[in-house]
Structures are given as structure tokens and as C-alpha cells.
Amino acid sequence: MSVQAKAIPMKGIPMIRAFIVASALVLAALAAMPAGATVKVEEVKSKSGLTAWLVRDRLNPIISMRVLVRNGGAVLDPNGKEGLARFTAGLLDEGAGELDSQAFQRRLEDLSISLEFSAGADHLSISLRTLRRNRAEAFRLLKLALTKPRFDAEPVERVRAQMLTSLARRSVRPGYIAGRTFWRTAFPKHPYGRPTRGTPRGRRCARACGRRRPRRGRLRTPCAAPRGLRARCGTRCR
Fold first, then answer.
1. Could you report the per-residue pLDDT of 92-111, keeping only the tens digit for each?
2. Domain limits of the chain?
3. 178 vs 39: CA distance, rounded Å
4. CA 88 – CA 120 distance, rounded (Å)
5. Contact present, 218 and 70 (Cβ < 8 Å)
6. pLDDT on residue 42
7. Read out DSSP for 174-232?
8. What pLDDT sits at residue 11?
9. Which of 9, 16, 30, 145 is the most buried (most CB within 10 A)?
10. How much is the pLDDT for 100?
């Protein structure tokens, strides 16, 4: 097993969270090693300057990778579209490039590739696990998901419905209500005080806008621009 974790440094509270996550990844890698094995953690850098921690284990022909992307979290959701980051993360594996949702998922399943996206408060999390012999296709699919997501109408509405149902269930749970009350009280008028999972109104406002070309270095979202694309995206709630 080979475990690789990438993280982009952040400041203040986000940096502390990034450190905790990175530490947890290394500890998980250590726990997976046989008793008495010597573990070497390597720091490697890409040509673009990204830093990764790499643990090599050739007992199993598996590549496991986790990436944390700064500026992909819920704190950057536009006002009135809370939950957009999580919504986008939930759609990234629902078709990309020439592959629609079913074809993309079928390709992952046929090659036993695990590809998951999730959005926290401060970052977008990407998890990839694949057999070594399938690594070329696994990373091709990852690249497609990040650079050419389709956001087709059917998966957009399906994922939206799933998230609205989940949100409705959580909204009556005491633990969720207590958590939301704490964050709203501890961080008034701050992005940390907003619901990262969104609100029913925000979910319905984040309508699909699938053909917008993203800025360089930014992920595309179903409809991240609240102004110039309102007419095309239909983001006004009625």
C-alpha cells in the first residue's frame, strides 16, 4: 500500500485543521503497517510547487491518495447559496468529459477505483484509491472530474433531491440542532456560523449552469457566479 497526502498550507484556524488532518493521515498509514515494520515518510514536491507526504509499502499493489484543496470549502459559498460547495463536490463524480454519469460510474466500478469528493468548511477533500495497474486510468478520470465536470440536468436534480432529503432529516435531530446553534452563536456574522450543508432555500437556488468556463486554477461549480449568470442559471428563488 502506498499512502500519499497533499495539503496546501493555510493560515490561522484553517492551518490548525490542515495539520490535524495531515497528522491523522500519517497515523492511519502507520497503523496499517505490519508490527515491527520501519516506516519512512518522504516529502516530495511537484513541478508546480505542491508538497506531498509519501509512505511506501510494496506488500499490496495499491495506491491511496488524499488531497486537500484550499479555497474549495463552504466558507466561500455565496450568500443565499449555502451548501454550494458540498453540492458541487457531490456532482464531480457524476459524469465528466465524454462520460455521462452512468458511464463514469461504470468505468470506476469495472476497474475497482474508489474516487470520492467532499467539502468541509475550509477545503475540498479528494480521495482516490486504485490498483497500481489501473493508475493511469484512475488519474485520467480524476483529471476529467476536476477539469471537465458535466453537471448534466438529471444528476444535478437527483443529487439535489438527495441532499434536500438528507437536510430535512438532519434538521429535526437534536444533535444537529445543537451543533448549528453552537456555530451560529460562536461565529455570528462569519462564514463559520453559516450551515455548511446549506439550507433548503440555498439548495434550490443553486441551479445548474453547466457551460460556464472556469477561471484558471478554480473548480467549476453548477452556478457559482451570483451576478452575471443569473439569467442563464435561474438563481432567483421564487
1. 999 999 999 999 999 999 99
2. 61-238
3. 41
4. 12
5. no
6. 92
7. HHHHHHHHHHHHHSTTSGGGS-TT--HHHHHHS---TTPPPPTT----SS--SSTTHHH
8. 45
9. 145
10. 96
CATH number of 61-238: 3.30.830.10
Q: Which of 77, 67, 86 is nearest to 18 (CA)?
A: 67
Which residues are CB-neighbours of 207 under 8 A, at least 6 positions away? 222, 223, 233, 234, 235
Strands 2-7 and 62-70, how do they pair?
Answer: parallel
What residues of the chain score a pLDDT lower than 50?
1-12, 208-217, 224-238
Residue whose entry in the numeric block shows the C-alpha cell 469495472:
110
pTM greater than 0.70 (yes/no): no
Distance CA 68, CA 18 (A): 8
- Grid cell listed for 80: 443565499
